[in-house]
Amino acid sequence: MNTNIYNSLSGLNTLGVDATCEKLIHATNRQQIVKACLDERLEHTPLLVLGGGSNIVLTCHFQGTVVVLESKGIAIKEDDSAYHLVVEAGENWHDLVKFCLENKMPGLENLALIPGSVGAAPIQNIGAYGAELAQYCEWVEYLDLETGKCQRLNASECLFGYRDSIFKQKLKQRAVILSVALRLDKQWSPNLSYGPLKGFSRESVTPKAVFDCICAIRQQKLPDPKVLGNVGSFFKNPIVSKSQFESLQESYPDIVGYVVSDHDVKLAAGWLIEQAGLKGSSVGGASVHLQQALVLVNKNQATGDDVCQLARNIIAKIHKLFGVTLEVEPRIIGASGQKEIDNA
Q: Boundaries of each FAD-binding PCMH-type domain copy (predicted)?
């Protein structure tokens, strides 16, 4: 376990915010993760656990310890119907998707190029292009910071929802995910529900073709965080009642919405932001991306405060125009831990 005396976090968050912390620990296996986290808890030190750093906004110096999860390992078992994978939290998610394809275990291709680590994936139930982690998850193992014990929850106990899970609710700031178990059916069935994928033939399409298509879409729509700092989609797509959607349609006939139940419709947050004329708007070094309004980018040495103020401006404008309240996806991190964006 390496304790780094240079406590810059700028290279550990995909937004590229230049933040620092009191103490920085790189934990390369499960035992080191558990020890580091419990030791800091015993000292009553603020604790921040990082995977790929793709879902956080650091707003200031963190007055505590940052533990970076770098545990690696993919264990595979199979039966007649499926492959069963147990993946360590520090594995890169996109690398896992590629690994599965290369080893003839398809199923995750719709989730290609989602940034971040495997350990972060269950927290917000990552999803894209018609697929969600919940469809493949068998169980999640985590360290309970309150009891000091390692626990396992099966998929139903994780309470997965749209960009949501028990790890964002009851176990928020209490669970450190150690490993994730996935099930990939041997009888592959392509998920072609998303627009550009509908052009494929179910009979002839290959997992690699779906993977390549998803990668091309994401690379076209979303900036590479290595080139332009960002955390991907900054806002959740809001869900409104069917009656509210119909009312909005009267004023905005082109509004984009997807029926999710008999009573609810999911709006496209990016459409709302673009319609509000906010593409390219900025605060300090933070801007709304010109190609994808759902993405806020670090255009010129943005601070976490710049990003948060820009997000507040967007939320206020959308609420004023449409009567809809946007929710942020990334975690907002203050001096001692996670906080709400209103207080950031």
A: 17-187
pLDDT tens-digit readout, 97-142: 999 999 999 999 999 999 999 999 999 999 999 999 999 999 999 9
Query: Nearest to residue 138, comparing CAs of 191, 181, 174, 195?
Result: 181
The shares of helix, strand and coil residues in the chain, as percent rounded to the nearest 5, are 30, 30, 40
| Domains, the chain, with CATH or none | 2-69 (3.30.43.10), 74-221 (3.30.465.10), 235-327 (3.90.78.10)
Closest CA to 231 of 55, 49, 68: 55
Query: One of 10, 138, 163, 281 is an active-site residue; which one?
Result: 163
How would you classify residue 29: left for phi > 0, otherwise alpha for psi between -120 and 50, otherwise beta?
Answer: beta
Q: Which among 116, 106, 133 is positioned nearest to 211, based on CA atoms?
A: 106
Note if 183 is an active site residue.
no
* Known catalytic membership, residue 88: no
Which residues does residue 255 pair with via DSSP β-bridges, in sequence order? Answer: none
Question: 139-192 pLDDT, tens per residue?
Answer: 999 999 999 999 999 999 999 998 899 999 999 989 999 999 999 999 999 999
- Within 10 angstroms of residue 225's Cβ, the number of other Cβ atoms is 21
Rounded Cα distance between 319 and 333, Å, is 24
Is 138 annotated in the active site?
no
Report whether 178 contacts 79 (CB < 8 A).
no
Which of 54, 117, 233, 287 is the catalytic position? Answer: 233
Contact assessment for residue 119 and residue 81, using Cβ atoms and an 8 Å cutoff? no
